[in-house]
Design goal:
Chain A is α+β, with helices and mostly antiparallel strands. Chain A contains seven helices and 19 strands. The chains are: A alpha+beta (389), B mainly alpha (413).
Chain lengths: 389, 413
């Protein structure tokens, strides 16, 4: 056989053996976290053990269809039960909904019956949750159920829900879910990516690294066995590395494709205004558009924007951006009286502790000790706009 | 203006060296016909690279401006400039409050370099209207340009089309690069262009002792100072790399002795910092390190190893880039020590020392703990790190091929 053919066979064998060894390592690690080996049957949720609290849906073939909401909420509950949390660390389910709001699984424990433990059901498909990682999932469980937040027109279908024991199969299923979990664009995307779920029992890049190491060692060993020169190892090592890279890239592209579909559904075909009105800050955008078009002058004016730094900073900075080219200074404190001038505007985003307005006296009060004459010129979902007198 | 000066200097250098005959377009040494397998691999890589770029393009076109620093700093400035029709001043808040009649604007980013905002302004002016999406198209083109430059540099080093494309693909498939190409508004991808490609050119220049490449590389990195304030530190690292390779041992020791003496004299005279007008304080003052246009950094050790390990080896931002960098570094430490090995090791160690200084020894550690600048600063070096790894492996594989050819010749004779 030609030396090249031997090396190719060695490489393929090394990749397969490396994969098997790394899977074995991950399996051993997952097994180490399974303490109980006793036989526990899964607890399947059916119409016999889970009921709608109000008449908000129907149950057919153990599939719960939710289509009505009382005060924006629908609840299905087990009522009084008694089970040990440590016997059931996994929740399996299949979910189908037309809502963007995730339903939640809830539980009440004997130790703390007045507090609800909540876990969001993140996948709009078959999913599994590791309840064991939640500190509140402990001791005796006295009630479980599901909460659905929704409005007219929203619908949820929950089926095949069950509480499961810790098993290797469940651990693997959860791990694969963690690796493939969709990470949509968010404020942290520009800085880092989790590469799947935030918590992963064994992160995928680590498993791929283990695969690369095992495959490389196996290849070097096989090459030595077949008396191939040492320096022939280097291209093969690069190919093994490339396989690892391609695997992680496939995961990224899978995430990217899901993101692309989401972006297309949300934004494709919309004009600039429609796109901005779909954002997290839609109420701010709409409010600022209204101010620019109907309240503020066409030429840039000076605006002092006040907001709570803990809860409103994002909205405040978005407001400043949407107001451009108006000349906005974003802050959390009202400047000293001598720094405020007639003709300037004060924009308050959301609620702000220490700020109040007396419309009868046309007077802003800031932290009880500063009083300024101002007229409220607009009020909306975003907050209020004042003109200094 | 600074960018224009740098680029003009670069153009002048090229013209001067071409006239003197020091500069010619390199001849491609690897022009052999690829095998069927190479053709298949090449096509696959083209498709993969194109897939990444198409994803970035569609996200750029569809998704309105999202990242925090974009709407709160860089793009806000560009939007103000576009609508006011002039490059209006941005001043500190105290000055804004004190001058009610001044047309100047205020922002926490008032002293940020203007390059990134200018690029968005330029795009909006070209479009004739402000677009929340299309203003970020040049950033995508910047990423594409970096990929093409890497391909070109690898070809000039004698790599095959397949290997050169692999290097380009490695860069364009890094998840964090994809994010910066899809969600525009940050300046980091521009810095990856100027600093990253500057170091690529500098490494090539130092390896082959080409003054034009060294000067070009340094000029590119110098231009990075006009994109983000960190550019200055990267420029100092570039000067250090150049000094180590261009100065003789005696010159290096003399420089080191003179620098130490200067520092000692400053300490003795109790003059460890200087006020440089609008640039602010520079030097060491009251327990803080000052650089132009940057807040003082408190000098103190912070243990951010766990954050580094998690971000570089366990999370999804970098694919396997750091595994590649660290295995390449280990490989470079195995004898025989070739000039390329020494160069790559020095570059990677200087890069690591820079990161160590910023995040382990100053209060910038908080940005490492928050997983923000910890990833975004290495992004500036990513093209050069990939290129350094390529050079190392390419050199070793070339040595191996040469050895094999010599042994075949001996065997035949």
């Amino acid at each position: 056989m030609k030396p090249v053919a031997i090396r190719v066979i060695n490489l393929l064998l090394a990749l397969i053996i490396g994969a098997l060894l790394s899977l074995e390592v991950v399996t051993a690690y997952l097994e180490s976290s399974i303490n109980e080996k006793t036989e526990i049957k899964p607890l399947h949720f059916t119409e016999d053990n889970l009921k709608f609290l109000l008449n908000q849906g129907e149950v057919k073939n153990n599939s719960f269809s939710v289509h009505a909401f009382t005060n924006g909420l629908a609840v299905i509950s087990s009522g009084q039960i008694n089970l040990s949390a440590k016997n059931y660390p996994f929740l399996k389910y299949s979910l189908n909904s037309n809502s963007t709001v995730q339903p939640t699984f809830f539980a009440r424990t004997a130790g703390n019956p007045n507090t609800l433990m909540r876990a969001a059901l993140p996948d709009n498909r078959a999913g599994i949750i590791d309840l064991g990682t939640q500190p509140q999932w402990a001791g005796q469980i006295i009630e479980v159920g599901f909460l659905f937040e929704g409005k007219q027109g929203d619908s949820f279908e929950l089926k095949l829900a069950s509480l499961e024991k810790a098993s290797l199969k469940n651990h693997w299923r959860l791990l694969i879910n963690q690796w493939l979990k969709f990470e949509p664009w968010s404020q942290y995307s520009i800085n880092f990516s989790w590469g799947g779920a935030k918590y992963q029992a064994t992160p995928l890049p680590l498993v791929v690294t283990i695969w690369i190491v095992f495959s490389t060692l196996t290849f070097v060993f096989l090459n030595k066995l077949s008396s191939q020169p040492w320096h022939q190892n280097r291209p093969a090592i690069l190919i093994i590395f490339a396989c690892g890279w391609l695997l992680l890239d496939a995961r990224w592209l899978f995430n990217a494709t899901t993101q692309m579909n989401a972006s297309q559904q949300t934004y494709a075909g919309l004009n600039e205004t429609q796109k901005l009105a779909k954002g997290l800050d839609a109420h701010i955008f709409t409010g600022m558009q209204k101010l620019k078009q109907t309240v503020l002058p066409q030429t840039p004016v000076k605006i002092i924007l006040l907001s709570d730094p803990e809860t409103q900073l994002y909205y405040a900075l978005r407001a400043r951006y949407h107001l451009a080219p108006h000349n906005v200074y974003s802050t959390h404190q009202l400047p000293a009286k001598k720094q405020l001038h007639t003709g300037q505007y004060i924009l308050v985003i959301g609620e702000l502790a220490g700020f109040s307005y007396n419309r009868f006296r046309s007077e802003i009060t800031w932290k009880s000790n500063t009083r300024i004459q101002a007229t409220r010129v607009h009020r909306g979902d975003y907050g209020q706009l004042f003109l200094l007198q | 203006m600074g960018a224009l000066v740098s680029l003009s200097l670069l153009a002048l250098l090229v013209i001067r060296y071409r006239r003197k005959g020091h500069f010619s377009y390199p001849t491609l040494t690897n022009t052999s016909n690829p095998s069927v397998w190479e053709k298949v691999a090449f096509t696959t890589l083209i498709i993969l690279t194109a897939t990444h770029l198409v994803f970035n393009l569609l996200e750029t076109i569809w998704t309105p401006l999202l990242p925090w620093d974009a709407f709160s700093a860089w793009t806000h400035v560009a939007k103000v400039w576009f609508y006011t029709g002039e490059l209006t001043d941005f001043v500190p808040a105290a000055q804004w409050l004190a001058q009610p009649d001044s047309p100047a604007y205020t922002s926490h980013a008032y002293n940020y370099p203007i390059f990134s905002s200018l690029m968005q302004l330029w795009t909006a002016v070209g479009l004739g209207s402000w677009s929340e999406t299309l203003i970020n198209l040049p950033q995508l083109l910047c990423g594409l340009a970096i990929g093409m430059a890497l391909f070109s540099e690898c070809r000039q080093q004698g790599a095959s089309r397949l290997i050169s494309l692999s290097v380009c693909y490695l860069f364009l498939s890094i998840p964090l690069i994809n994010t910066h190409l899809s969600l525009g508004g940050y300046a980091d991808i521009w810095l990856a262009g100027f600093t990253g490609l500057g170091f690529v050119k500098l490494i090539t220049g130092l390896k082959e002792q080409q003054p034009i490449a060294i000067t070009g590389g340094l000029l590119l990195i110098a231009t990075a100072t006009l994109i983000k304030n960190e550019g200055l530190i990267w420029f100092l690292l570039a000067l250090l790399t150049t000094a180590i390779f261009q100065l003789s041992s005696r010159q290096l020791l003399t420089t080191l002795a003179l620098t130490s003496a200067a520092i000692l004299a400053c300490l003795l005279l109790e003059t460890t910092s200087l006020e440089l007008g609008t640039l602010g304080r520079v030097g060491y003052f009251e327990g803080k390190i000052f650089a132009p246009n940057m807040p003082g950094l408190t000098f103190q050790y912070h243990n951010v190893w766990p954050a580094y390990f998690k971000n570089f080896f366990l999370m999804g931002s970098w694919n396997l880039l750091w595994l590649l960098v660290f295995t390449s570094l280990v490989t470079a430490l195995i004898p025989p020590y070739t000039p390329t090995k020494k160069l790559v090791t020095t570059f990677v160690l200087i890069f690591l020392a820079g990161q160590f200084f910023i995040f382990f020894l100053t209060d910038q550690a908080r940005w490492a703990e928050k997983y923000t600048a910890l990833n975004r600063l290495p992004l500036h070096f990513s093209p050069a790190l990939i290129y350094a790894c390529f050079l190392l492996w390419h050199d070793q594989l070339k040595l191996k091929t040469e050895k094999q050819a010599t042994s075949n010749e001996l065997h035949n004779s």
